Amino acid sequence: METVIYEGIPNYAKEVRQKVFVDEQGFHNEFDDIDETATHIVMFDEDKIPIATCRIFWDIVMNTYILLKLRTCISAYAP
Questions:
Q1: Is the pLDDT of residue 73 over 90?
Q2: Is 56 buried (19+), middle (13-18) or exposed (0-12) by CB count in 10 A?
Q3: What is the C-alpha to C-alpha distance for residues 24 and 19, in angstroms, rounded to an integer?
């Protein structure tokens, strides 16, 4: 497994979130303005397929870092 950190939302994170929240759970408006400025972490399996993601950002109001949108979709990419 490999974990990669990105500034701004990479397509890999979009793929995981689209699959889990939009396609599987029917959410709308999964993506927002925070995605463009947050740090995103994407985990890849041994075949370089994205299987999990989360985002981290500084919240001015709460004066702390927030970790949100933790998503996994290991079964979503299984054959």
A1: no
A2: middle
A3: 6
CA separation for the pair 51, 49 (Å, rounded)? 6
Sign of the Cα torsion 13, 18, 22, 24 reads negative
Reported pTM:
0.81
DSSP output for 18-64? IIIIIIIT--S----THHHHSEEEEEE-TTS-EEEEEEEEEETTTTE
Buried-exposed string 29-40: b where 16+ CB fall within 10 A, e elsewhere: eeeeeebeebbb
